[in-house]
């Protein structure tokens, strides 16, 4: 791990930015102006409170020294309903720290803070748990049951389906990096439990990034420092049933191996967005997207205009209300080889970022009487031709289709025979030539399986889903909002076959996940609602 050099904190100008934002200024009684913002810091905790159009920032380190006074425990909100505006919302609370896990628990309208690191050359690890009440803007300790992990700085997500915090990896003073997985349940008495996933686990690592992928119901971990070596591996930890590790091999050219980068989940496009970090070449300011369909695919995103300074350990979040990324602070190269702490704020509108992805791998759903296919395509302005081959025979064109809003192309093939195998692919125009992409093969099953069909985008009043049940039995249909809060639930007994369920029309615009559960098995789909 690289040695840190300390310099006086520097508040760099916000001239270099995705979308530069001026610091909010409060006028003092004597007519002078006083800067009113969190100030330079890195490894602060930063999480969105989407229902209030704000983000909550806690703590961090100003990097000036190893003294306790350099570690912070102030709490700020960034109002993102208009021009972003900082306001300090709470003083005191948890002891000062950096590198703490900070997750949103929407069911209880709170943030949950765990662990982190505080003063010292090696650092003193923390293992306490605190909650920040989002209605009253107050802190209180959370008392837990079970045997907690030894104090350390780790990385974590909120699992809305099972109402828990899940942590992976991290660094513990005295023993180094770890690959431990822990859960802290929130229902009833909060309880710590170690998790021992199936599959070959990742090596111990720290300074990585993790996100929750709600469509795949899994934790995604990228990069970090393992055995003193920077890596660019992608790992998935399934969260339903027996948690299982799988190392993913995304298509495309991956980002350079790195640590101390930042990642967020983009729910409108089902992808992880990663920014900056520290590679073998130094600080970076590149932006990458990992398409999370199938094994995934990497694409470097092209950002117009000047970029923020290269940095690591910044605060980074996704603002769903404005469909943009928000970046604050971090650590960068200073003068004479020192490292300087930043206090700049940047946003970038991601709705129009171009990518090189042309056609993603298809997502098939096969039943005895149909094959339903979904591709994600980069150009919604052109038509795509669908080709099919049965059992390796000649390819034949079976139709063409224009993508739906959001770049999703669907094809419902009803001309199939149970037990037969089919291959599909798309043909499309690319730079004056016709190309094929998105090829896959699927075998049509002989019996029905549990399935859920939902629209990717709802713009009209009707919001309907289609359930396929293999046999008669009790079913539960649930809808979760982007924060993981359950906003709809319906349980009843239904016969085998297909059922159309109307979910009504009084839905607030946003991103939702529809989940169907029967006999211990579940499927889920993402839906974006616009009006």
User: Any idea what the shape is?
Assistant: globular
The overall pLDDT, averaged over residues, is: 85
Cα-atom Rg, whole angstroms?
24 Å
The first-level CATH class name of the largest domain: Mainly Beta
Specify the number of helices: 0
Counted up, domains total 3
Which structural category do the helix and sheet elements fall into? mainly beta
CATH topology of the largest domain: Neuraminidase
Low-pLDDT segments, ≥5 res: 1-35
Helix fraction, binned, reads under 10%
Overview of the structural elements:
The protein has 531 residues and is an all-beta fold. The protein has three domains: 25-349, Neuraminidase (6 Propeller), CATH 2.120.10.80; 358-447, Immunoglobulins (Immunoglobulin-like, Sandwich), CATH 2.60.40.10; 449-531, Immunoglobulin-like (Sandwich), CATH 2.60.40. The chain is built from no helices and 42 strands. Strands 11, 12, 13, 14, 15 and 16 form a six-stranded mixed sheet that branches. A five-stranded mixed sheet has the order 36-42-41-38-39, with no helix packed on it. A four-stranded antiparallel sheet has the order 3-4-5-6, with no helix packed on it.
């Amino acid at each position: 791990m690289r040695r840190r050099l300390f310099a006086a904190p520097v508040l760099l100008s916000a001239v270099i930015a995705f979308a530069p934002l001026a610091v909010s200024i409060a006028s003092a009684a004597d007519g002078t102006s006083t800067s009113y913002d969190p100030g330079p810091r890195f490894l602060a905790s930063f999480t969105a409170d989407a229902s209030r159009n704000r983000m909550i920032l806690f703590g961090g380190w100003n990097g000036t020294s190893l003294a306790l006074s350099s570690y912070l425990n102030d709490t700020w909100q960034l109002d993102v309903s208009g021009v972003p505006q900082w306001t300090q919302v709470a003083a005191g609370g948890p002891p000062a720290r950096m590198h703490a896990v900070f997750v949103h628990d929407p069911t209880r309208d709170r943030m949950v803070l765990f662990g982190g690191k505080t003063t010292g050359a090696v650092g003193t690890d923390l293992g306490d748990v605190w909650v920040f009440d989002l209605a009253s803007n107050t802190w209180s300790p959370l008392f837990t049951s079970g045997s907690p992990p030894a104090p350390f700085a780790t990385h974590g997500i909120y699992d809305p389906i099972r109402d828990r915090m899940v942590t992976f990896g991290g660094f513990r003073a005295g023993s180094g990096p770890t690959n431990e997985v822990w859960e802290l349940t929130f229902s009833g008495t909060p309880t710590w439990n170690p998790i021992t996933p199936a599959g070959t686990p990742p090596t111990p690592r720290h300074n990585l990034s993790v996100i929750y992928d709600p469509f795949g119901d899994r934790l995604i971990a990228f990069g970090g420092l393992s055995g003193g070596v920077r890596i660019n591996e992608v790992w998935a930890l399934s969260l339903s049933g027996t948690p299982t590790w799988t190392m993913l091999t995304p298509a495309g050219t991956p980002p350079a191996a790195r640590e101390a980068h930042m990642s967020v989940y983009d729910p409108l496009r089902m992808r992880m967005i990663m920014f900056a970090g520290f590679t073998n070449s130094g600080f970076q300011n590149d932006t990458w997207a990992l398409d999370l369909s199938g094994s995934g695919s990497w694409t470097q995103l092209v950002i117009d205009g000047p970029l923020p300074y290269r940095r690591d350990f910044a605060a980074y979040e996704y603002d769903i209300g404005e469909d943009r990324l928000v970046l604050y602070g971090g650590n960068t190269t200073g003068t004479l080889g020192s490292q300087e702490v930043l206090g700049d704020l940047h946003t970038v509108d991601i709705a129009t970022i171009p990518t090189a992805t042309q056609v993603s791998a298809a997502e098939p759903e096969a039943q005895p009487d149909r094959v339903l296919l979904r591709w994600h395509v980069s150009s919604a302005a052109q038509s795509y031709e669908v080709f099919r081959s049965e059992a390796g025979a000649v390819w034949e064109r079976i139709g063409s289709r224009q993508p739906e809003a959001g770049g999703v192309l669907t094809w419902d093939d009803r001309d199939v025979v149970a037990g037969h195998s089919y291959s599909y692919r798309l043909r499309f125009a690319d730079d004056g030539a016709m190309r094929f992409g998105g090829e896959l093969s699927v075998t049509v099953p002989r019996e029905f399986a549990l399935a859920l069909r939902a629209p990717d985008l709802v713009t009209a009043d009707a919001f309907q889903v289609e359930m396929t049940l293999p046999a008669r039995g009790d079913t539960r249909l649930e809808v979760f909002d982007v924060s993981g809060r359950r906003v709809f639930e319906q349980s009843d007994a239904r016969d085998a076959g297909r059922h159309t369920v109307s979910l009504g029309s009084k839905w607030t615009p946003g991103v939702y996940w529809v989940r169907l559960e029967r006999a211990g098995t579940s499927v889920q789909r993402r839906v974006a609602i616009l009006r």
